[in-house]
Amino acid sequence: MTQISTSQFQKGMFIDYRGEIHQIIEFQHVNPGKGSAFVRTKLKNVKTGNTVEFTYKSGEDVLELPVFIREMQYLYKADKQYFFMDRNSFEQFSISDSLVGSFGNYLKEGILYQIYQHEDKILGLKYPKIVKLKVTEAEEGIRGNTVSGAKKTVILETAIKIQVPLFIKKGDILAINPDTGEYLERVND
Amino acid sequence: MPTWRELKNNSQLWDVFYLRQQIISAIREFFDRKNILEVFTPILQPAVIPESYHEVFSTTLIDRKLKKNTRYLIPSPEVSIKKLLAAGLTNCFEITRCFRNRESGSNFHNPEFTSLEWYRTAATYFDIMKDCEELILFINEKINKNNKTLIYQNYTVDLTLPWEKISVAQAFKTYSNISLAEITDVKNKNNPFPTKKIAEIARKKGYRIFKNNTWEEFFNQIYLNEIEPHLGVNGKPTIIYDYPAPLAALGKLKKNDSRIVERFEIYLGRIELADACTELTNYSEQKRRFKASENEIVNSTKNQIVVDFDFLEALKSGLPDCAGIAMGIDRLIMLFADKKSISDTLLTFE
Known about the structure:
A: SH3 type barrels; CATH 2.40.50.140; 5-stranded antiparallel β-sheet; 1 helix; about 0% helix; B: alpha+beta; BirA Bifunctional Protein, domain 2; 3-stranded antiparallel β-sheet; Transl_elongation_fac_P (chain A)
């Protein structure tokens, strides 16, 4: 375990908050109208999946929990659990959907994901900043429709619907920010 | 990603920049109708006032003779405007860029931001509260016509008057079960804000205590954790008023309680939109606070600054009774465009 300062906070990091393991989901620097700097965090309890907000004094020291990352293949979802397999040891692990949250919408079977482990405990998924998914259903965009910001809904291979510009076609591969569900760009290659 | 690239990918993103123009036009029209003068004070200044919690940007001005002089980018136009009030101007407003270093990495702060400030002479913070209510309603009417309900990040805010008003002392009692008496010491004239006293309350609540923590840090940590989440989220905008004195360097103390400054903030859907004060006009009191603030800066890691003694001179020459406010224009845009982060309202080319 390492003592770190709030200036070393990173999204996804695991810390001790009031005696339990929490993952930093979000953190924000805040300066009240008149006063010192603070760091507002959103912390997820890895045991319960509950989130709490806590604001630290800037520079306060916090205990970081050492984690390592294992690469695992996503297999399937059953009973509110996502199942993964370590391809070297064939061990299987599950993570509850309350921990995976909305990222579950972008999980694709057969793909390798990075999983955090602390000692012998699986803590959760390391969320990539970008996911690339294929469009499986899309209406034809109407040619000549140049209305500013016009959008349509398409369905991706993980069955999630997202809003995209009109030129996107079935079969295109899109880069998406899984954090916000926003379309970023077309990445056909 | 630089904003131009995002705009090229998604033309809908232009909307927020049209909204910015609408809001700024509405603000100008609002003050124009009241016959209030718009002023344009310098952004580059030779000196700043000591506010220990601001890290100012500094740069070097080189004159024709190659002589070097420090210049600062203003953290707020407040000091310049007060000099104009001392010079005889009555009511005025300014829309300007302000700069605060180290304020990156936040949904609500950007090192460069646009601020609206306005001041009224022969006025108190109550007059400014009234202006605020009128201004927000005026901007809303321009944008949303007759619809007086805003939705911001899933919070519904009904703008019709009256708004929720709560004093800081009431809020601490209601949301945190702390009374002002527990964290201050009325009898101690030299230091009514003993750090020891508030640290003990903070410790009992599970906050951690470190050496060098100040009264203000404990106060603000409790405020941010236990009070702020309740502000502007009860269906109406919230005006929270009467702050402890360590939380306002330029505010006027209440006549009947010298622990309290006449200051208020407005929250809508958890956005802290504005910060206002009945202004301190007393020269010697301001000088004393400057000194205290300067010492704090020396004790912290902050850069040394050239202190704006000219501001004290302006006060000495006679600043009329006045009240003023700073309102974040970028935050107004966040509110009306329902954007989670200030960066969604700004152009960035980094």
